[in-house]
Write a structure and sequence with these properties.
Blueprint (H helix, E strand, L loop, with lengths): L6 H13 L8 H7 L6 E5 L1 E7 L2 E8 L9 E4 L4 E6 L8 E4 L23 E6 L5 E7 L3 H4 L6 E6 L8 E5 L1 E5 L19 E5 L4 E4 L4 E5 L13 E4 L5 E6 L2 E2 L13 E3 L5 E5 L8 E8 L2 E11 L27 E9 L19 E3 L16 E3 L4 E8 L5 E5 L4 E6 L11 E4 L4 E7 L4 E7 L2 H4 L4 E6 L1
Parallel strand pairs: 1-5, 4-9, 10-14, 13-21, 22-25, 24-31
Antiparallel strand pairs: 2-3, 5-7, 6-8, 8-9, 11-12, 14-19, 15-18, 15-20, 16-17, 16-19, 20-21, 22-23, 25-29, 26-28, 26-30, 27-29, 30-31
Bound molecules: CU-O-CU linkage (C2O) and copper (II) ion (2 copies).
One copper (II) ion binds next to strand 6.
Length: 468
């Protein structure tokens, strides 16, 4: 069976299975090998290439490998990593490590932290990831073309100590705008609808052994669908399991298992880690489903192989917490952030790196050019060591996944819903919602602060927060 599922992962698994003398041995011994010390020096090269979604080859995509998904980078918590990124494209590029708390100069934001990388130039990114979890990487210059055409990869920071999952299955959810014959459509039509949206994920069918608990990580990028934002709605299979982490960090309060009545909303830039027990009987399938409107489609299908390893949900240990200092909510300074349309109407945009030439959105009623070389100050200056509450208010009817680079924050209250306790880098701000997020300014630098719907980001909903 040919599977589109994480080829790198499957290769490793096959080697382990073969090396251990058969399918039945995909147990603890295999699990250790799955968490072998990661290679910590990577080379990535962006390029135009093609990729076969199923049987049909789509040309004109941007990837880091030929006819393959962008590779899954596995770093290790607390261990230095080097990633040499070579821009193999005609346009400028940079690479950003979404969700990682790293030194400002390594953040990959054009002009703010580095100059864009020209064709065939290499930039060395060097950092030590302090937190374990599921993150992702993507260009932060010419993102409308480079991200939309496929350069979005999963970045996993493995826990400092090995965890005893029997399998670790990363899955990158991404929409491509394709025609009926699977060729790629122009990635943007100004404010137009995406008429030929096709849902494609990495996975058609994957095999998992009858394992203790598989850990399933998603790393979604969503582009605009026929409505303004394409937020994934996920329904999980009826197997024993638990959401263990959200946006990289272990949850602090249980999140309900998503059902068809109450699907999980996963906005652009957000990630979820799920632990589940594979079915005991060989051949049984586990299906993760998505909803397009109300129509279900298969996101990932996995099939149990080998002997039942008799794992139980109760064996699940909570993930180790990432250690960082927490914001002091009592002592926090409150700052208001208003997200909406630009009050002055459409203006011109002086941003670079693929910014559209018009303005539509604003932060605090100011359209922020985002990637501008000069002429913009920070949305807010925060002082190192001080805690803040950012009171974010959405005065538009759209959903905005608001993302902050370089820092983590904790949503503490919403006027519309209960938000389970967790730390994150991206919050999906709903229509008419006001959310207070608490953040400790503990990482100096200029940190991008933007909506992760790229069209919003590139038309005014992108500024930065300065920590001094
Ligand atoms: Cu996913 Cu500004 O980043
Ligand atoms: Cu980011
Ligand atoms: Cu937005």
């Amino acid at each position: 069976m040919r599977s589109l599922f994480e080829t790198e992962r499957l290769f490793k698994r096959r080697e382990i299975l073969a090396g251990a003398g058969g399918l039945a041995l995909a147990g603890t011994a295999g699990a250790k090998a799955l968490f072998a010390e990661p290679d910590r020096h990577f080379r990535l090269r962006s390029r135009m290439t093609s990729y076969a979604f199923g049987e049909v080859v789509t040309r004109g995509l941007v990837r880091s490998e030929d006819n393959a998904l962008p590779r899954v980078l596995r770093l290790r918590q607390g261990k230095p990593a080097i990633i040499d990124y070579t821009n193999g494209l005609e346009d400028y590029s940079t690479m950003h490590w979404h969700g990682i708390r790293l030194p400002n100069a390594m953040d990959g934001f054009p002009y703010l932290t580095q100059f864009p990388i020209g064709q065939n130039e290499t930039f060395r990114y060097e950092f030590t990831p302090p937190d374990a979890g599921t993150y992702w990487y993507h260009p932060h210059c010419m993102t409308m073309s480079q991200m939309a055409l496929g350069l979005t990869g999963i970045l996993i920071v493995e826990e400092a100590d090995d965890l005893s999952f029997d399998a670790d299955i990363p899955l990158n959810l991404k929409d491509f705008r394709l025609t009926e014959d699977r060729s790629v459509l122009p990635y943007f039509t100004a404010r137009g609808a995406w008429r030929y949206l096709r849902q494609c994920t990495n996975s058609k069918l994957a095999t998992v052994a009858c394992l203790r608990c598989a850990r399933w990580r998603t790393d979604p990028i969503a582009l605009r669908g026929t409505d303004t934002t394409r937020v994934h709605k996920l329904v999980f299979p009826d197997v024993p399991g638990q959401i263990i982490a959200w946006d990289g960090h272990p949850i602090e309060e249980a999140i309900l298992w998503p059902t068809i009545e109450a699907p999980l909303l996963l906005g652009p830039g957000q990630r979820v880690d799920v632990a589940f027990v594979a079915p005991a009987r060989e051949g049984q399938e586990v299906v993760f489903t998505g909803l397009l409107g109300r129509t279900p489609f298969v996101v990932a299908k996995m099939r149990a192989i080998g002997q039942d390893l008799q794992r139980a949900k109760d064996d699940l240990q909570p993930l180790p917490r990432n250690s960082f200092e927490k914001p002091d909510i009592e002592a926090a300074i409150i700052q208001e952030i208003v997200v909406g349309r630009t009050p002055k109407g459409d203006g011109t945009n002086n941003g670079l790196c693929g910014t559209f030439d018009y303005i539509f959105w604003s932060i605090n009623r100011n359209p922020w050019p985002g990637d501008a070389v000069e002429g913009t100050g920070p949305v807010l200056t925060m002082h190192q060591g001080q805690s803040y509450i950012l009171r974010m208010r959405n005065e538009s009817p759209n959903l905005h996944p608001i993302h902050l680079h370089g820092l983590v924050f904790k949503p503490i209250r919403s006027n519309l819903r209960h938000i389970p306790a967790y730390f994150t880098d991206t919050l999906l701000l709903l229509k008419d919602e006001i959310v207070d997020i608490a953040v400790l300014a503990d990482n100096p630098g200029d940190w991008a602060f933007h909506c992760h719907v790229i069209e919003h980001q590139k038309t005014g909903l992108s500024g930065y927060i300065r920590v001094v």
